[in-house]
Specification:
This protein has 211 residues and is an alpha/beta fold. It has one domain: 3-Layer(aba) Sandwich (Rossmann fold). It is globular. The relative contact order is 0.21.
Length: 211
Amino acid sequence: MSPRGRFITFEGIEGVGKSTQLANAAKTLESLGVDFIVTREPGGTPMAESIRELLLAPRDEPVHETTELLLMFAARAQHLHTRILPALKQGQWVLCDRFTDATFAYQGGGRGVPEERIGWLENLVQGDVRPDHVIVLDAPVETGMCRARKRGELDRFEQEAVPFFQRIRDCYLNRAARDPERYCVVDASVSLEAVTEKVQELVYKFYENLL
């Protein structure tokens, strides 16, 4: 049986460059000859992508915080059990754009949903499955939102006000501070070259630690 793969997630507020650094990490693993998949949340499977569309679409109808939370975990349950876990069991590494830390940050920090409620759903859906490494790309909210606006039309989350994203950023940093062995905070406000180099260093370190 193949050894279990490694599960690495990329987190952060809007506009910090998660997609760019996910591609950078994928290129680094490719150079090392590591078998991997790249995926995202919410999404990652056809059904979960349909839920993603429901979550992100701007709408006139207010979305209750519990509705949002349950949809997030519904998509995650499908994604985890039909894509992530099978890949890990086959020895593949999984690079994922957001995972449950995003729920603690956005629905917890941003919306004010109690952490205990999120934790209960985390245990229900995931059991003891947690990412091996969480790379938090961090930048001031103003920097991130300026970059996000340049990408084009904003989704339902991106249309939120600055204080919402400040609470999210604070939550990410607090979670990272509580578990420094698993979380790596990368300054995403510096040059793209510097961020890319730091993420490459981290991926090499994760790989070398298994040798």
